[in-house]
Amino acid sequence: MRTALSLAVRGLGRTWPNPAVGCVLVRDGAVIGRGWTQPGGRPHAETEALAQARSFSGGAEGATAYVTLEPCNHYGKTPPCALALVEAKVARVVVACQDPDPRVAGGGLTRLRDAGIAVTTGVCEAEALALNEGFFNRITLGRPLVTLKVASTLDGRIATATGESQWITGPTARAWGHRLRASHDTILVGIGTALADDPELTCRLPGLEDRSPVRVVVDSSLRLPPTARLATGARRIPTWIVTGPSPDSALAESLTALGVEVIPVAATADGRVDPAAAMAALASRGITRMLVEGGAALAGALLGAGLVDRLEWFRAASLIGGDGLPAVAGFGVEALAAMARFERTTVRSAGTDLAESYRRIAP
Ligand code: AOF
Ligand code: ZN
Q1: Mean pLDDT of all residues in the chain?
Q2: Does position 362 have pLDDT exceeding 80, yes or no?
Q3: Residue ranges of the CMP/dCMP-type deaminase domain (predicted)?
Q4: Terminus of the chain with fewer CB atoms < 10 Å: N or C?
């Protein structure tokens, strides 16, 4: 199952709207098939593994299938994976976790058991749930998994008072940041960051150049100029703009003409895009994993709405002090009881910087 999980990881960032699943077929102590969900979500992991097993005599007959998610039970572009496993005559299926998709939801396991296949569930379940937390969030909460990435000084500053910000962390942390992009479906930035930095928001690691996620700008009053790199490059790498309910139609048209998708959503009383509405709109387009890269206002708005699930915090061994720009704008915390609280899952050295990962525990 651990092998299947490591295969599944390969799909992260590319399988949306589907989960990233891994499958290993074993017979007589030998691996006869390995598969993982392919870009765009199809073929499924089981299809890939079963295709490999076909080159062995007897195919997958009598084999054990280790799958990180309950095999599907619905007809899509291909018949259900549960049916494919039955037809291949596997003897046993070991599953890490159930699929909450209402089209599956236990039906895949029932189909296998009804065919006389031995089924074991819950193997490495916690790992599998964490791996596909984005997909589970999309199905059960109607929003993606939201990971906030920050590169700051020790005192949590991301720029000096004059706005100088390049570079606070070193090349290793920056490379890790690009690798994070590759495993996400979208990168989200606020319009302030888009205007100030004119960023490309692509994955520029050798070998991973084709792993750039959809770029999303939260732009409440539609201000992104058609000359911005995010707009001019929209045909190469998709750019979406989440904006208020009635954007300027001339600007919206000129952006759309460049291939940018303009997505109007509900606004809050102060005229800003409602964070929950933005997340719902992205999930309904199939987004499961979102990496938020700033700036401070967007980070504060998402934290204030309780929408940040994970933090990836790169911390340089330097200090700017109180005149610097904080990584997170105020989000209304008056009592300590109202703090956004996280637990640390890993901490590593990234060159001269520290890379800390956290998962939200409250609110
Ligand atoms: C599997 N193996 O590798 C994946 C599964 O749109 P479709 O027809 O491709 O179906 C998508 C659903 O299939 C998705 O919501 C989830 O329930 C399941 N994903 N299932 O057996 C896989 N990726
Ligand atoms: Zn399937």
Answers
A1: 95
A2: no
A3: 1-120
A4: C
Please report, for residues 12, 179, 189, 194, 262, the alpha-carbon distance to residue 197 in angstroms, rounded to integers and kept in the order given.
Answer: 27, 20, 11, 6, 21
Q: Using CA atoms, how far apart are residues 178 and 211, in angstroms rounded to an integer?
A: 10
Is residue 72 part of an annotated ligand binding site? yes
Last residue of a domain, one of 70, 105, 134: 134
The closest residue, in CA terms, to atom 7 on ligand 1 is 76
Specify whether the CB–CB gap between 299 and 150 falls below 8 A.
yes
In terms of pTM, does the model score above 0.90?
A: yes
* 206/184 Cα distance (integer angstroms): 17
Task: Name the domain count of the chain.
Answer: 2
Same domain, 205 and 353: yes
Q: How far is the centre of ligand 2, averaged over its atoms, from the C-alpha of 75 (Å)?
A: 9
Do 169 and 88 sit in the same domain of this protein?
no
Q: Which atom of ligand 1 is nearest to the CA of 19?
A: 23
Contact 146, 279 (CB under 8 A): yes
Q: What's the CA-to-centroid distance between 3 and ligand 1, angstroms?
A: 19
Range of the domain at 54: 1-134
CA nearest ligand 1 atom 22, residue: 44
CA 191 to chain CA centroid, nearest Å: 21
**Environment class of residue 270 by beta-carbon count within 10 Å: exposed (0-12), middle (13-18) or buried (19+)?**
exposed
Domain boundary pick from 134, 169, 202: 134
301 belongs to an annotated ligand binding site: yes
Does residue 196 share a domain with residue 112?
Answer: no
55-97 pLDDT, tens per residue?
999 999 999 999 999 999 998 778 899 999 999 999 999 999 9
269 and 315 in a single domain? The answer is yes
Q: Is 21 in the pocket of ligand 1 (CB under 6 A)?
A: yes
Residue nearest to atom 3 of ligand 1 (CA): 44
Per residue in 173-228, pLDDT (tens digit) is 999 999 999 999 999 999 999 999 899 988 888 888 888 899 999 999 999 999 99
* Residue 203 counted as an annotated binding residue: no
Please tell me whether residues 94 and 184 are part of one structural domain.
no
356 and 299 together in one domain: yes
CATH number at residue 93: 3.40.140.10
ipTM of predicted assembly, 2 dp = 0.88
